[in-house]
Specification:
Layout (H helix, E strand, L loop, with lengths): L11 E4 L9 H6 L8 E6 L11 H10 L5 E6 L7 H6 L4 E5 L6 H10 L3 E6 L17 E5 L15 H14 L4 E5 L7 H7 L3 E4 L1 H4 L4 H18 L1
Parallel strand pairs: 1-8, 2-3, 3-4, 4-5, 5-6, 6-7, 7-8
Helix pairs in contact: 6-8
Bound molecules: D-xylitol-5-phosphate and zinc ion.
Length: 232
């Protein structure tokens, strides 16, 4: 998958499977009727965040069932260097690691790319965006967390918007091409502002899978996001 080809179609939508029906994830994905661009998969270890979620075998099953859909894997684990290989080999297209989770973020991002996977880096709401600057030339995606990671259905934290704007400016000034993704409390109410601030990829859990009609909800979210392009 070439992530940058998709930039022309921004904003992209990556529904988060954490909010899908655990006993009917396939039916929930199919209910989107192709209104999404990627699938977002949250990997939680009960240590970096106080919750547990999916493992590599689940990613492998998704990969086989949806061979054409980019798999956007968000690793929320302690010591991601011990965990990233199974997710790379089970079919992640993008593998995003937290800057707070390892003392060797530079090496880890290089290792992800060596496995043929797009490296992404992310940060918690309480982490300064400047912590990412030394590694932004190594990544294809920056994920801005707009809630404290661990759970779906939390309220969007508006104080992270200046981080998106700063990353957007940094990308322009440095001539870099990474995509900017936002995750947590994203909805049709804030999508326009996020895209206007520089966001390319909207992750959305409850505002898609928590709605009675996921396809309509996805389309409404994207439409709201596209309004941000017109004013951006
Ligand atoms: C939170 C996860 C998110 C979560 C988003 O730790 O990283 O991907 O599923 O869910 P919503 O969109 O419901 O806030
Ligand atoms: Zn996530």
């Amino acid at each position: 998958m070439n992530l940058f080809q998709t930039r022309e179609r921004r904003p992209l939508l990556a529904p988060s499977l954490l909010a899908a029906d655990p006993l009917g994830i396939r039916a929930h994905i199919d209910a989107l009727n192709g209104a999404h661009h990627w699938l977002h998969l949250d990997i939680m270890d009960g240590h970096f965040v106080p919750n547990l979620s999916f493992g590599p075998a689940f990613l492998g099953a998704l990969r086989r069932t949806y061979p054409e859909v980019p798999m956007d894997v968000h690793l929320m684990v302690v010591s991601p260097e011990s965990f990233f290989v199974p997710f790379a080999t089970q079919g992640a297209d993008v593998l995003t690691v937290h800057v707070e989770a390892t003392p060797h973020i530079h090496r880890l991002l290089q290792s992800v790319r060596e496995l043929g996977v797009h490296p992404g880096v992310t940060l918690n709401p309480g982490t300064p965006v400047e912590f990412l600057y030394p590694v932004l030339h190594l990544v294809d995606l920056v994920l801005v967390m707009s809630v404290n990671p661990g759970f779906g259905g939390q309220s969007f934290l508006p104080e992270v918007v200046p981080k998106i704007e700063a990353l957007h400016r940094f990308r322009e000034v440095q001539g870099l091409r990474f995509l900017i993704e936002v995750d947590g409390g994203v909805s049709a109410e804030n999508a326009e502002c996020l895209v206007k601030s520089g966001c390319d990829v909207l992750v959305a859990g409850n505002s898609v899978f928590g709605m009675p009609h996921p396809e309509l909800a996805a389309k409404a979210l994207l439409e709201a996001g596209r309004r941000g392009l017109n004013r951006g």
